[in-house]
Each structure stands twice: as structure tokens, then as C-alpha cells.
Amino acid sequence: MPVPAPDPGQAPHPPRPAVPATPLAELAESLAGAAVAGDAQRVAVTGVTLDSRDVRPGDLYAALPGSRAHGADFAGQAAARGAAAVLTRPARGVATWQVVLVRRQGRWAVSEVAAA
To answer: What is the DSSP string of 4-66?
Structure first.
């Protein structure tokens, strides 16, 4: 079966498994040392990504430091693509979000959220 051509206005998404939506509050409870700003009870997460260009509606966007830029610099782009919430480190304000999950060890949190 041929693979459909990507929409020229969107970055191509690699395949990922379909998973049931998980309440952000439930994910936050499973992360030791995580704090939530906003109403996590009203947000459900269906995926997690580190790349704002790969965000799908319902994703938790992990805004972490990179080698040349901080992921928080791309939070607006992630929001425009439908991210449900953002995960970032303390003291890295992301004012455009209604729900922010904050954890000191952000990279560990991404792996824990993905496993959940």
C-alpha cells in the first residue's frame, strides 16, 4: 500500500502507536517531584514529543534545553499545532500555556511520560 504524501503545510509525522488519552493529572502524579500550573484535570495527553514541528493534537510538548536553543522558544509553535500542555524545567516560564507540567529532571520526565 502506498504511503500518502505529507501535507505541504505540515511536517511529516513518523508513525506512532495509537494510545488512549491519559489525564495529565494522572501523569503528574506518577512523576516524582513534578508540579502542575493550571487545571491538569481538564487536560488529556495522547502523546509526547520533544520537537515542536512534530506536535500532534493532544501531545505533551517537552520544552527542554537543546544544543542551540531551548524548546520553550518554540512553545507558541507547539500550541498552534494542538499541544495539550507543556513539560519544562523550573524557572523557564512559558506564559502562553494554560497548563504547564514542571519538573527539575525534564529529560527523565519525558521517558517516564512516554512509558506511561
So the answer is: PPPPTTSPPPPP------EEHHHHHHHSTT-EEES-GGG-EESEEES-GGG--TTEEEEE-B-
